[in-house]
Structures are given as structure tokens and as C-alpha cells.
Amino acid sequence: MNIALIAHDKKKKQMINFTKKYKDILSKHNLCATGTTGRLINEETNLDIERFLSGPLGGDQQIGSKIACDKIDLVIFLRDPLTAQPHEPDIIALMRLCDVHSVPIATNISTAEILLNALHREEVTNWREIKDRY
Question: Is position 60 annotated as part of the catalytic site?
Fold first, then answer.
């Protein structure tokens, strides 16, 4: 599976802690991230991550392009709903793309944990199969 990781500035530490906790599961998948988030995760976990531009420079749009081309299977976007800054990635555009293409997206740590645990138990091995059933 191809998993995209994005975090607003105030959620980057939470993303790092999350990826440390789930390193064994994440290491079995192809990971990509916006620039700063990807760098921080890599420095802390040594996970192999394809890094795009930082969010303010269009990294979220690069990930959005991959979603539109069915090259992303899961998005974890830890967002700060209270104090997000104008320079941070736009969650609305990515949520719309995920909904259009039936790509699961977690916007908080609880949902992210549920999705990764489902992957680990292999209850859902291919989100695309679910989409095609309906």
C-alpha cells in the first residue's frame, strides 16, 4: 500500500510519535510525505519515505495529484483545526480528492490508529476492492 503522511506544524511531534509506535507496520508499505514532515519522520525512525515539497511550496498538491491518479491508498493528515496557519497544507482539497477516489483519510490520531490497526490485522487488504463492490 502507498501511504501519505502530512502534519500541520503543531501536529508534527504527534506524527513522529505515531510513526515510532507503528514503525513495524509502516515499514511494510510505501510511504510518502510532505517535505518537512517526511524529513522529521525519517530522522526519528529511519523509515524510507518519498519526500515531496513542503506543504507551503505545494507538497500537499503533489500528494493530491497522486491521489487523483490512484497512486495513494491511505492518507494520514494530522491537522490542527484550531490554529492552522495560512501557509500550511489545505485539508479541504485533499479530503475532497480522497472522497472522490474513495481513499481513506485520517485527520486525527484516533482514526489513524484504527486504520493502521485494520491494515495490520489484514481485515482490509485493498481499499480499491471495497470501492469497486459498490
Answer: yes
